[in-house]
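To whoever is on call:

I kicked off a structure prediction for a single chain this morning and the downstream step that reads the tokens threw a length-mismatch warning. I double-checked the sequence; it's 274 residues and nothing unusual in it as far as I can see. Pasting both halves so you can look.
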Amino acid sequence: MSSTVLAREYHGKRLYRLSSYYWARTTGEMPVQMLFPLVYTTICFFMMGFYDGEDSWKIFSLLGILYVTQFGAQGLGYLIGSMTVSSEYVITLLVVVMVPSMSLCPMFLGPGVSLPAGLAWTPYISIFRWAAEALSIWCWSGVQLIDWNPSPKDQVFFGPHCCRCTTTSSEAACDIFIPGHSVPVGNRSVQQSHAGQVLNGGKAYIVIDGAKDVLLPLGIDIGNQPNRIWFCLAMLVVFGVVCRTISFTRFYFRYRHMDSLRSICSCCCKRKVE
């Protein structure tokens, strides 16, 4: 419904309250909007190999994260849309808000990149930050990728993750080495399934641990913050609620008082007199 029709029906006919219209409009669209994450998640989940044949509930946890992310994103959309009735201005505001919010997100800046002190607060109000963290934790928590027979090229490319074990104890400290260097750069503690045998026959292998090698460089320490994913989801919910509250306030101010400060002042004065 256009703003002109809404203003005419509200001020001229009083067909409904502004709050009734706002909440009916925002909640009425939810069933249709929830269908899209369900469709592309179902396709991508199996296509990308997330289903391992054991944890069948993992797809539902992914859907839950996406629905919470959608709730926060819709709130931001309502907030931007409530700022003006012009579609051209809305597109401009969308670019102005979304590009910095994405560009200043730590997940997109990369490991080891920090923001200046004056911009350090921006990731906390970025929906991309909390959504990306939640999805990264869901994807990499408890995941360990191992290549027992890497090519020489892969050994060079994944040098810091390339290991070779020469001991036969049940808990072995395998050397981490970079091909071309004779001295190991570190070691990684691994559990061997068969004591008395050298892991992988003493040959080089590549191991990537999701928590240590992927999440930790991005500043996500799930070892010390095991409930980090719940905190991210809570921030998305708060983000969505705050944006919806502000957008409704802007919506009410526009159509109840026609963006007139004089109307608001006169309304407040009447209430004081009464």
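Update from on-call: the warning came from a stale cache, not from the record. Cleared it. Sanity check on the structure: DSSP finds eleven helices and five strands in the chain.
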